[in-house]
């Protein structure tokens, strides 16, 4: 029985409301207790003469109170539900729940989990097993069948991943499991985006004749992702995409961040009517653009809205120099004409003011170019020559083009990759070809190995290299006759490159081909150290360790345990669980591995057409509310009021006992009779005096447990939990304490008194705690608890930074609302330095930040200093050394993060610091009494 928005679990009990008239009649006919009076009898006679009335019934308001109480009890036993939800069809032989947990599911993941829990609850009510599979997990992940409790645990433990979904593989596994469960129900909770192979995947999954199908996709697809970010001449160009179903004009804001997470630029990306691709431009100076480390779209909390940048996204200055005078009438004959046209889109070009090499080369070097291109430059004056050699040895790239001057000059072993023969080779000359020579396949050991050889390019003139033992290793491009077209070699930290033909179209048509642009682009990338990370100067395959990963919500986080090194050098690498999106490499240089490619499109997922009945549902939280508890509470309040009314009518609250009157005799008996009637109509109801949370409280106090504050950032919370687990294991190994599993607490809701210490990692991106939450923390600290604040920002601002980090600023905001005592760094004689280990300092993952505690009452008196903070324990500790990062261990017990600096002794000292803190919290400052032993013995006469 249901009347929206109210329904009843046991509507038959409502027939008990028919007993209300009977109860009313009994209450009216219940004779009241006669009024009793003591002597004098004349007063009784006087009152009888004045008022001739005999009490026959209870007051009307008391009768109404009792009828309302009985009605509330009847309705409560009928289990009313406000805003009931529709029961979903999950009554087959089993429930196969397939859920997308890729990057597109991240923004509303909690809503999707709540939807899946409703399906599991309905399946549990029907007593059917549950297959639970996620489309962004490892291929060997367990899919069940599970019991409802195990399915809920697996669902709550699963998080979205910053990778594409693999529906074909997962759907095939679920379809194979359904072969043994004919007639099962299938629930598909999709992210709303179509992918390649979806049609065949749905056909395999839904082709098993399911008894019913539940289909859930987002109500509206408004996802926006970044597919490209290019550092152009006039600014940083952004390209974003959105689903084709979002056809209205729209603007989004994108922000650029440096390697410290500071926002340094903004841009607006605009989508026109029916446009799925939008563009924007960040017009900021060249130097500022080179500081960009990541770009993200505001309000899009998923990995597709973030694009990390590496050296390939940074523009570099390229210096151009030539000894030939520019011919304004014939610019196509200029040695630098085609070089300028090829480099201008992706480099900032600078040229010297002087044509004299002695002045021109120092002028270029003063502008700190990443690469210098010399077009037909012969002999270089000695002072400029020496400066150029030093620049190359320090990491510069020198690219030289042949010409008549270079061919006539002598060999320069310091500024040429190979030795040259005197003169030049040309079509029809002394060293001539019978026909122009084409370019063959690029050597696999060179930086052009992945480029296709240009079939249209031919060379009619070149300078030849002297044969040598290493000429093959130094050859980056060959002609058909085997002679080198491009050679290169390393010179300490720098690189020398020589094109054996001229940069004009007179010696070859290479400068007017597209391959010329690609070859120069590759050289510019190498000048930015891209070659040493990705393919090396010689084209070797590189394996780069994970450095900073993009989480599913778009945040940059430390690498997860599943991340593996990225192998580059064989073309594009797909985004997988082993290679999630992010930065790979080290602090010396990184390679960006982004989620969305330039040709990615977002296509809405269409519901498959099948014969089985399909129920469409929306992602939503369960908004139904059980009214049984509130109705029972209201009935209990009315019963209390009834009891007080009976006592009042009986004269309990009167000033004189002689004036007491009892007009409500038998009321309690009527209430008990009504209760017996209601419970007779509801034999399913059982008394239970337990309250929600009782078992959790019992578990919390049965063992000492360390706690950490849940910040809402899954990566930070995971590190906090792993850190406290590592510290708990160390405590078990080294002390008599055996703490339980660490507990994550929500400071705005959970009971804090169960935990002696709470570790709070400060996250500047997390919302500011509410005043109610701050008040709970304040009460916890005043009642004897201690909060360990860890800003984890010892090196956040770098060496010599004056301004506070965002984490420190957030900590100041939090402490401004607390009753914080005066603080001081832990003195050398503090109890913390000797509560278990003798420690001179308290390092974590970082070292250098002091541990702040409550200041002593007389901290300046070093000779007769009182016991530290009386007999109490400091309610607050503050550090920036990242304790949890040093304590954190993975499933195998190995440390998750390296210490800074990488010193094994620092990690051991961090564990010992944690032991001292825990022992200090549990035992107080009893060690301080040792300083008073002489005085105590003197008082005792010993």
UniProtKB/TrEMBL annotation:
Residue ranges of coiled coil: none
Transmembrane segments: 6-27, 60-78, 631-649, 661-682
Pfam families: BatA, DUF4159
Record-annotated DUF4159 domain positions: 705-922
Aerotolerance regulator N-terminal domain residues: 6-80
Keywords: Membrane, Transmembrane, Transmembrane helix
CDD domains given in the database record: A4_beta-galactosidase_middle_domain
Protein origin, superkingdom: Bacteria
Protein name as it appears in the record: Putative membrane protein (TIGR02226 family)
Organism: Pseudaminobacter salicylatoxidans
